[in-house]
Task: structure prediction
Amino acid sequence: MKTISKKGVLLLAAAMAVCAFVLPAAASAASWGTVGSNHTLTSNNLGYTSPSFGGITSLCSNTSLATTVTSAAVLTITSASFTGCTMTAPGLGSGDCTTTWVPTRLPWRATAVTTTNIQIDDIFIDLWFEDMPGRPGSCGGFLPSLPSTLTGTLSGGNWTGNGIGQHQITWNNGPGLLWHAGTGFMHWTWRGTFVDDQQTLVVNP
Result:
């Protein structure tokens, strides 16, 4: 059996010390607090955008997510509502439309990968498009007769902080969502700010 000389042991120790100094530590995830607490996240400017087909823009004037901090790793979204939603899609041959959002397959899960990458997993929303009230034919095109769904994992949410007047998550065209209609799909991004009404939800970096 070969033995390692004292000099060899010293060299090995030195090499390990250099590696420990050079290699970066693994980044740890942020965490939610306080476990067991309930929060209502609301937004008055939620919308989705797509650069495809000449652009698609939308706005929901009243969005609400009922949530519970089920663990430090997971914020569970137990219910969701989207009202006052409109859309314009000139690239799809459509004008001004109202949209009905029906969230399904709840609960969804929100995770804080970092304070600048809040994600919502398992999103599944049924979407319908209709003419604007009192404006027959305003939506136009084929969308009013086309049921569709919005699915995916939304990422890129930014936590504004745990101070007074903060406790908000903002998405600025966050990626990860797919709009499915017929046999095709389109990438959509999500934008908007969700405010914790209770001002007690915490994200620990």
Summary: Residues 30-204 form a domain with the Porin fold (CATH 2.40.160). The chain has one helix and twelve strands.
